[in-house]
Structure prediction request, 211 residues.
Amino acid sequence: MRMSGARIGPSPEILTVSGDGLLPYVPALAQLRITVFRDWPYLYDGDPAYEERYLRSYVDSPRAGVVLAIAGDEVVGASTCLPLTDETANIQAPFVAQRIDPARVFYFGESILLHPWRGHGLGRRFFAEREAHARRVSTCDIAAFCAVERSVNHPARPVGYVPLDAFWRNRGFAQATGMGCTMSWREVGATAETPHRLNFWWKSLTGAALS
Ligand SMILES: CC(C)(COP(=O)(O)OP(=O)(O)OC[C@H]1O[C@@H](n2cnc3c(N)ncnc32)[C@H](O)[C@@H]1OP(=O)(O)O)[C@@H](O)C(=O)NCCC(=O)NCCS
Prediction:
């Protein structure tokens, strides 16, 4: 996956939207997710109907936030977050299993950026803005996200691909040992959905140790 490239204009405007403020951006966000997640490591053959439903859950979650990167009139990147209590049961379950109250957790959904805009610090900004949003709208003391698990020998893995693990560690996140979930989607070239394992990463928002 290429992560850096020539910038195609001045730095995008960054803004965080919530609730109905998200509605005008839903079609662009759905397309952005489909475009970015079609690549390694997600290989997601996007379904616009699913995207609308998924993004609706952010509109309907009053404390959710979506950080947008807007260049001109184009949404070139986005990053999502919401209280874990507003997420689906399969994402809450690993926390409940560890006896962690989901009310303590702000869940970071995804960060997606079009290729030409990568490598210029927007990914770092997405993390900073989401943490700021979580602190603004909640008393959650944990931020968490999950990422798809892929074999290093997977035939679709691009030559020279650098995993994002170091980037996430540099943002203060650690892999939450033994915590994962399963999500199903149809991969590019497949005829049916298949289950995919995702692993959780987390970070204390207070500096307290997580175990
Ligand atoms: C994740 C993503 C948003 C990061 O965006 P970005 O703007 O390129 O990130 P930044 O410019 O802020 O750089 C982030 C880090 O990546 C590093 N990096 C730069 N080029 C890289 C490359 N070719 N491969 C891997 N990491 C690279 C930077 O050094 C930086 O690390 P550091 O701050 O820890 O030193 C972007 O890569 C993306 O959209 N990826 C595809 C979707 C995805 O997998 N999202 C994550 C799961 S939802």
